[in-house]
């Protein structure tokens, strides 16, 4: 007989009954800690869902293009500008492009896998490779014509100046009776 009891989020315990009690002895219960990740049993569920969506509804991988990886981005703002910082480790500057079109800034490129060397045996590969695309809708006060970008040490820094405030156009409307 096993029962699950949860004492705090992210941690599951199992109460385990140790068989039948002997005459005159009380039933023994054991507390077994299962781990901190309640979703650990789902394994690669994210990959399965991604592959399912990538092939739906036509059954071909190209039907919906979902990137194998995407660079991590930080988006911030100051009173003068918006900033986007994208981490692109291992990506050469000629392997990606940055475009602004109709209020949308798009970062698109590809990170290529290293060629295998003879005699080199991998025990684990955790790096992701392939094409990527990230798009950001710019706010109304962003000045698309003055976007600047700098790429150094695998970090792309994009600066988008804000346009000058036009001031308030609010006014009181006279109501006639």
Summarize the structure.
The chain is mostly beta strands. It contains 1 helix and 10 strands.
Could you characterize what this model shows?
With 177 residues, this protein is mostly beta strands. Among the domains are: 2-35, no CATH class; 73-113 and 130-161, Immunoglobulin-like. It has one helix and ten strands, in the order βββαβββββββ. A hairpin with a 2-residue loop joins β6 and β7 (104-111). It is elongated, with a radius of gyration of 28 Å. The chain starts with a strand and ends in a 16-residue tail after the last strand.
Radius of gyration: 28 Å
Low-confidence stretches: 1-19, 60-66
Q: What is the 3D shape?
A: elongated
How would you classify the helix and strand content by structural class? mainly beta
How many helices does DSSP assign? 1
Terminal residue distance: 80 Å
**Element-level helix/strand string:** EEEHEEEEEEE
Describe the largest sheet: 4 strands, antiparallel
Strand order of the largest sheet: 4-5-10-9
> What percentage of the residues does DSSP assign to strands (E)?
35-45%
What is the average of the pLDDT values? 75
By DSSP, the count of extended strands is: 10
What is the CATH architecture annotation of the domain at 73-113 and 130-161? Sandwich
The CATH topology of the domain at 73-113 and 130-161 corresponds to Immunoglobulin-like
- Share of helix, binned: under 10%
Which class of the domain at 73-113 and 130-161 in CATH terms? Answer: Mainly Beta
């Amino acid at each position: 007989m096993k029962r699950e009891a949860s004492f705090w989020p992210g941690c599951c315990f199992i109460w385990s009954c140790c068989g039948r009690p002997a005459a005159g002895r009380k039933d023994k219960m054991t507390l077994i800690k299962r781990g901190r990740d309640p979703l650990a049993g789902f394994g690669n569920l994210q990959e399965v869902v991604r592959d399912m969506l990538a092939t739906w509804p036509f059954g071909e991988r190209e039907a919906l293009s979902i990137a194998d990886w995407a660079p991590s981005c930080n988006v911030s703002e100051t009173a003068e500008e918006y900033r986007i910082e994208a981490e692109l480790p291992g990506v050469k500057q000629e392997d990606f492009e940055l475009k602004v079109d109709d209020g949308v800034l798009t970062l698109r490129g590809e990170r290529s896998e290293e060629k295998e060397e003879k005699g080199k045996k991998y025990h684990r590969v955790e790096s992701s490779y392939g094409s990527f695309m990230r798009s950001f809708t710019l706010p109304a006060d962003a000045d698309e014509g003055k976007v600047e970008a700098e790429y150094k040490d695998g970090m792309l820094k994009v600066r988008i100046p804000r346009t000058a405030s036009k001031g308030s156009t609010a006014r009181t409307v006279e109501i006639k009776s």
